[in-house]
Design a protein that fits this description.
With 139 residues, the chain is mainly alpha-helical. It contains 8 helices and no strands. The longest helix is centred in the N-terminal third of the chain and has 14 residues, at 3-16.
Length: 139
């Protein structure tokens, strides 16, 4: 097993056990390695969101998108950050980007539905919420 893989496994184990500081430190060391998967950036972004470091989360999630423009997790989590910062139009664009990459992603369907509901588009939101339900035609 490579050092990179071993470090990723260790970081995920820390993250799953709730040891977010330890996981974040490992992800932080890895993100400059071009061989590191985009998931390491996305996971670091999620941890930064948990810590309330929204600018830091935004930076690593934007980096993840630049490395992989099809990263559903990066778009969805960046949308969460933008929504928390009150940037609904940017959040909407991110959730739409996530759904462009994977039209069946439940988190993105629900998150975009919430944005649409708040923006006064409940009919469009209802369609998204319905698509997110297990047993819908999308599943």
């Amino acid at each position: 097993m490579s050092d990179l893989n071993a470090a990723l496994i260790e970081a995920v184990q820390h993250q799953n056990a709730g040891r977010l500081s330890e996981a974040a430190a490992i992800y932080q060391r890895l993100i400059d390695d071009p061989a590191a998967p985009v998931g390491a950036l996305v996971n670091l972004g999620r941890i930064r969101i948990e810590f309330g470091d929204l600018p830091g989360a935004m930076a690593v999630l934007q980096q993840a998108i630049s490395r992989d423009p099809g990263s559903v997790g990066a778009y969805n989590n960046l949308g969460v950050v933008l929504q928390a910062l009150g940037q609904a139009s940017g959040a909407r664009a991110c959730f739409e980007g996530a759904l462009s990459a994977d039209p069946r992603d439940r988190e993105a369907l629900v998150n975009l539905g919430n944005i649409l509901t708040a923006g006064g588009e409940p009919d469009k939101a209802l369609d998204l919420f319905t698509r997110a339900l297990p047993g819908s035609e999308d599943w």
